[in-house]
Each structure stands twice: as structure tokens, then as C-alpha cells.
């Protein structure tokens, strides 16, 4: 049997060609996608390419043309695409349900307030009358540039002050419809002095969905009034019944479970029915906030990166519920993540390849581990052997005494067990693919089989370029920009340039929903298990190719358009990547480059 060290040497690209196909590649690297799928594609030669206005550009070519080792590629038509999906889905379903209230979309500026994005929202949103949701003076000032360009709707839901109220008055005077949320008595005092501003009731939902932003909802959440408080405040501020036009409830971002979405929409409906029947009869806009989950991986598995429902389910339920009413309200769509996530791709070059853990070479030719594993015929045998070995290793870590021979064996085990067992596992699974469940259901084997063998250093800073990866452990889909027509070689953790151990991507979700021969389930060089048809696997790193000498090997981190731009951190003063902005003008692709004088490598 070859050990892995030898394997590296005998490895040859031609020799190991298999029936790898682009269809498998698209599944493994998450490129079958309802929003970006037609735009970010794999071309016939295995390059990741962007299609705009009937032309297709390869990401690798663009990076090399401008000589960038790191860049953000912004594909602005993807913003337009998401807006169209929302608008057309709603319109079609409204027709089917006989819903007459209409849709009022608004973009929550906190999701991405940079000029380029706001400008795209403005332009692509023109035909839908897309408005804005803002929560700070800074956002209002940015939006002021557009105040004179034609009226849109503005929902303000930040902390209120006289200053803020005056700016909002300015928008109203230019013809905008301005609705200001009330969250407390403080807000009511300020709004008493600005009688022309329409009022929104920001209500706390009882329901708390799952996910990272569950604390946004529930009665102890930061935002909004309880219905109880509202009813009490109404006694003193009688005008609120007259001025309240909007019911505003937000349950947090990225609600990935359909049952949670349903329960939340039902609650919003209930609050609306109760409030309109109890004095707030002039409420005409219902805003169930954001929360429509973005499919970072579009396989509907019902996990945080892969919601188990779509925009169709979302509006279908909402419209079914609200069309029960005699008088239909206008429904507000206030999602931002779904609209802008797809438009920004971070592309970075692999600048170094390192072993993931210390590689120890034993002095003897074959290791003890190898000899023992030779006799193993089934996954069950393998588990029994591993149990013995772990007991031996465990003894040492408990501080018990070893003989010199035992210590040598233990060291040999620690350094070799991973590679040897992984090799054995791939042999056993190839021979008996149906035993893959035995591996997946055994935490130790699963971890070994999907563990990284390399650490790739990328010319980027996670803190600057995809901060949510460290802040909230956000999953971002990663794909190579080249060689997608080849099987991946290794599973690699992606390290950044900062001195911070948190600057790494070490988790990857593989969910391949097609039949693939067991021969192709493994990486070519380190023999990691990177897929099992129809199963969702969590890998300890990204399946990638080993860059060959002299090759500019780039990695793309997809769907980084929501929340990342404004949260950028300046760790180690590494930030400021150049941007390649792609748009479609009169059916033609247009590419513009913006240098930001970043200091990377
Ligand atoms: C953050 C926020 C949104 C955006 O939600 P996403 O699901 O992330 O798009 C919408 N409305 C309000 C009130 C928010 O605070």
C-alpha cells in the first residue's frame, strides 16, 4: 500500500483523470443557484465566468488583466435580478390570490449603504418605485443626494431626535412619503412637534424564530413597542390613532426555517387585524420587515446557509393570509440581504500553500499503523482498531507512564493515523459505497475523512473583506475560479494575511444532489471525502486544487454583498481592496475599476 507521502510523488494529473463533470462541479461548489446561477457560471473549459449583456468574462482573465491579487468584483445586474424576482413573484402571486393591496418595496440601508449599491438600488428600483428604510443621520445624508430626483417612500426606524425629524421633513417637502416609526414615549414627544410626518408602529413580535438574529425579536428585543405599551400610550397621545399608517414588525435576518416564517407572518397578520379593529383603523401599510433568507447554498436543506423555502413560498403564504381581509393593505417588502448578497464576490490569489498540521516522517519505512490497517476489511473493523489506538493515545495525555516502545507507537499514531486512516477509508468506501452512512454517523471517522490537509494563504483579510465570517460565523460559499473541470486535489483551510488565528475559513458545506460514482467522492491527493450523493456534509476546509508551479490560482468567495462593506475592520491595517464593477448599460457589458490603495501583499 502506498503511504500518502509516496502518493504525492507518484501523483500525475493525466493519470488520475476521471469522469468528473461540470455538473458535479456546479453542485460541489454551490453554483446551481436561483439568483446568481445564470450570471456566475462555469464555462466549457472549467473557468468561473460572469455573464453580462450576452458576453461572458472569465474572472481569472479579469484579475490577470488588471494585475490584481485581491479584488471585489461587483456584479450590479444581480441586484436588479433579485429585485425583479421579488417584484415579479409578488405580482404573479397577487394575481392568483386576487390580492388588491399591492407591493411597496423598500431597501434597508443598513444592509449596504455604500454609494455604488444605493445608486444601483435607485436605478434598478426605478420601475418598481423601490423606497428606502433608514435608521441614522448618516444614511439620511447619503440618501439626500436623491431627494430631488423623484419621490420614493422612506421608512425611518432609528432613534429619533429633533435633528432627524427636521431632515425627514426635508424629504417630505420634496414630495417623498415619509413614515416614522414610534418605539417609545420619547418618539411620541418628538413627533408631536412634527404633525405632518406619518407614523409607523414598530411592534415587538412574541414569536422568536431560530437563527443568529433571533434576539432581534421577542419581547425583550431591542426594537419596538409591545401592544400593551402602545395601548397605554394612546391614552395620552390620542393623535397616534389618526396618524398611524404603517404596522412594522421585524423578526430578524436570515430566517431559514419555513415553519418560522409561517408562524411569524401569521403573527403579523394577527397584530394587524387586532390593531385595525381596535382604533388603529387607518393602518394601510403592513411591513413584516426583512428575514427572507438568502440561499448561501441553494439546496433547501433548512440549515442557516440553505433555507428550506423560497421567495415564492414567502409571498405565497403572505398573500394567502392577507387576502382573507375585506380590505387589503399594501404589503411592504423590506429585505436587503436577499437583494444585495449576490452582487459582490471577493477574489483572492493563493499566495502560499502550507501543510495543515506538522508532517512527521518516521525513520522506519513502513509505520506500525500501516501494518495493522492492512488487515482491515470493513468500516466496522476500522472502528475497532481506532478504538484501541485512541485508548493508547488517551493514556499518554492523562499523564500516565509509557515505555519507550509505547511512546514511539503513540507518536507514530498521532502523526500518521490521520493520513493512513483516511487512505484506508477511501479504499473501503470505494469498494462498498453504501457504508458511507457508517462513516457519517461516527463523529471521529467523519471528522478524519473530511479534515483539511493543507492551509492555503490567501491575499486578503477576513476582517476587512468578509467580517461576518468572524463576527457571526457567517457561511460564505467558496469556489475556485479555474480548473472546475478537474476534481479537487485537497481539502484546505483558507488562512488570511492577518496575524489573527480567527482570520480563517475552515468550514465548508457540500451538498451534492445527483448521482456520482464513489470514485469521485474523494479529493485526488489527500483522499478526503468531499461528497456523498444527496447528503449534506460539513467539511473541515474547502475542496480545491493544488496550484501548480507558476500558476495564478484564485479563489472566489461568493455572496458577500450584504452587510460586509460597512462592517470592514482594519486589522493589521490590511484593507482597501480594488473593485471591479460590472454593469449592463444598454444591453452591453460595462466594466469599471476603482483603486482603493489597499495594502495587502
Ligand atoms: C436589518 C433589517 C432589515 C433587513 O433584513 P434582512 O433580512 O437582513 O434583509 C429589514 N428591516 C429591519 C427593520 C431591519 O432592522
UniProtKB/TrEMBL annotation:
Essential cofactor(s): Mg(2+); pyridoxal 5'-phosphate
Domain called Orn/DAP/Arg decarboxylase 2 N-terminal: residue spans: 103-341
Residues recorded with modification N6-(pyridoxal phosphate)lysine: 110
PROSITE patterns to which the protein is assigned, alphabetical: ODR_DC_2_1 (PS00878)
GO annotation, biological process: L-arginine catabolic process; putrescine biosynthetic process from arginine; spermidine biosynthetic process
Pfam families: Orn_Arg_deC_N
The UniProt record lists the keyword Transcription regulation: no
Recorded GO MF terms: arginine decarboxylase activity
Superkingdom assignment: Archaea
List of catalytic residues: 499
UniProt-listed InterPro entries: Ala_racemase/Decarboxylase_C, Arg_decrbxlase, De-COase2_N, De-COase2_pyr-phos_BS, Orn/DAP/Arg_de-COase, PLP-binding_barrel
Family per record: Belongs to the Orn/Lys/Arg decarboxylase class-II family. SpeA subfamily.
UniProt-listed PANTHER family: ARGININE DECARBOXYLASE (PTHR43295), BIOSYNTHETIC ARGININE DECARBOXYLASE (PTHR43295:SF9)
Protein name per UniProt: arginine decarboxylase
Species of origin: Desulfurococcus mucosus (strain ATCC 35584 / DSM 2162 / JCM 9187 / O7/1)
Lineage, top ranks: Archaea, Thermoproteota, Thermoprotei, Desulfurococcales, Desulfurococcaceae
Amino acid at each position: 500500500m502506498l503511504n500518502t507521502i509516496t502518493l504525492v510523488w507518484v501523483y500525475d494529473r493525466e493519470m488520475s483523470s476521471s469522469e468528473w463533470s461540470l455538473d458535479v462541479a456546479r453542485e460541489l461548489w454551490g453554483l446551481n443557484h436561483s439568483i446568481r446561477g445564470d450570471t456566475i457560471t462555469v464555462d466549457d473549459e472549467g473557468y468561473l465566468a460572469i455573464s453580462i449583456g450576452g458576453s461572458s468574462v472569465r474572472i481569472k482573465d479579469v484579475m490577470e488583466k488588471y494585475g490584481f491579487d485581491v479584488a471585489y468584483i461587483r456584479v450590479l445586474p444581480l441586484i436588479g435580478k433579485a429585485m425583479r424576482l421579488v417584484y415579479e413573484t409578488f405580482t404573479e402571486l397577487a394575481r392568483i390570490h386576487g390580492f388588491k393591496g399591492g407591493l411597496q418595496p423598500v431597501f434597508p440601508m443598513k444592509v449596504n449603504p455604500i454609494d455604488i449599491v444605493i445608486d444601483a438600488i435607485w436605478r434598478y428600483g426605478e420601475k418598481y418605485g423601490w423606497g428606502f428604510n433608514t435608521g441614522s443621520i448618516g444614511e439620511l445624508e447619503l440618501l439626500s443626494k436623491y431627494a430631488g430626483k423623484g419621490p420614493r417612500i422612506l421608512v425611518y426606524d432609528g432613534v429619533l431626535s429633533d435633528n432627524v425629524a427636521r431632515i425627514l421633513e426635508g424629504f417630505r417637502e420634496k414630495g417623498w412619503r415619509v413614515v416614522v416609526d414610534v418605539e417609545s414615549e420619547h418618539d411620541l414627544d418628538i413627533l408631536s412637534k412634527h404633525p405632518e410626518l406619518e407614523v409607523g408602529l414598530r411592534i415587538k413580535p412574541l414569536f422568536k424564530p431560530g437563527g443568529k438574529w433571533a434576539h432581534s425579536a421577542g419581547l425583550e428585543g431591542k426594537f419596538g413597542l409591545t401592544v400593551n405599551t402602545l395601548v397605554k400610550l394612546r391614552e395620552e397621545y390620542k393623535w397616534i390613532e389618526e396618524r398611524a399608517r404603517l404596522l412594522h414588525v421585524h423578526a430578524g435576518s436570515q430566517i431559514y426555517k419555513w415553519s418560522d416564517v409561517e408562524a411569524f407572518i401569521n403573527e403579523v397578520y394577527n397584530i394587524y387585524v387586532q390593531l385595525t379593529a381596535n382604533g388603529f383603523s387607518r393602518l394601510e401599510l403592513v411591513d413584516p420587515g426583512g428575514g427572507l433568507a438568502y440561499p448561501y447554498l441553494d439546496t433547501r436543506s433548512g440549515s442557516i446557509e440553505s433555507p428550506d423555502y423560497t421567495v415564492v413560498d414567502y409571498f405565497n403564504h403572505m398573500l394567502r393570509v392577507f387576502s382573507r381581509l375585506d380590505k387589503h393593505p399594501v404589503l411592504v417588502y423590506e429585505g436587503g440581504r436577499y437583494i444585495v448578497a449576490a452582487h459582490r464576490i471577493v477574489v483572492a490569489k493563493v499566495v502560499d500553500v502550507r501543510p495543515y498540521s506538522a508532517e512527521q516522517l518516521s525513520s522506519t519505512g513502513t509505520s506500525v499503523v500501516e501494518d495493522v490497517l492492512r488487515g482491515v476489511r470493513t468500516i466496522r473493523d476500522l472502528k475497532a482498531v481506532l478504538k484501541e489506538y485512541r485508548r493508547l493515545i488517551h493514556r499518554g495525555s492523562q499523564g500516565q507512564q509509557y515505555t519507550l516502545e509505547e511512546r514511539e507507537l503513540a507518536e507514530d499514531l498521532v502523526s500518521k493515523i490521520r493520513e493512513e486512516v483516511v487512505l484506508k477509508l477511501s479504499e473501503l468506501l470505494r469498494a462498498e459505497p453504501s457504508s458511507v452512512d457508517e462513516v457519517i454517523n461516527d463523529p471521529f471517522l467523519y471528522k478524519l475523512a473530511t479534515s483539511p490537509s493543507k492551509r492555503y494563504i490567501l491575499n486578503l483579510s477576513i476582517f476587512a473583506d468578509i467580517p461576518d465570517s468572524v463576527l457571526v460565523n457567517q457561511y460564505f460559499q467558496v469556489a475556485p475560479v479555474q480548473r472546475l473541470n478537474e476534481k479537487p486535489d485537497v481539502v484546505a483551510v483558507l488562512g488570511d494575511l492577518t496575524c489573527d488565528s480567527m482570520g480563517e475559513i475552515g468550514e465548508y458545506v457540500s451538498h451534492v444532489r445527483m448521482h456520482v460514482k464513489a470514485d469521485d467522492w474523494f479529493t485526488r491527493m489527500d483522499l478526503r471525502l468531499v461528497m456523498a450523493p444527496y447528503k449534506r456534509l460539513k467539511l473541515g476546509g474547502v475542496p480545491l486544487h493544488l496550484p501548480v508551479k507558476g500558476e495564478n490560482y484564485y479563489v472566489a468567495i461568493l455572496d458577500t454583498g450584504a452587510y460586509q462593506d460597512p462592517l470592514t475592520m482594519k486589522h493589521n491595517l490590511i484593507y482597501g481592496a480594488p473593485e471591479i464593477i460590472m454593469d449592463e448599460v444598454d444591453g452591453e457589458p460595462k466594466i469599471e475599476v476603482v483603486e482603493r490603495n489597499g495594502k495587502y501583499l
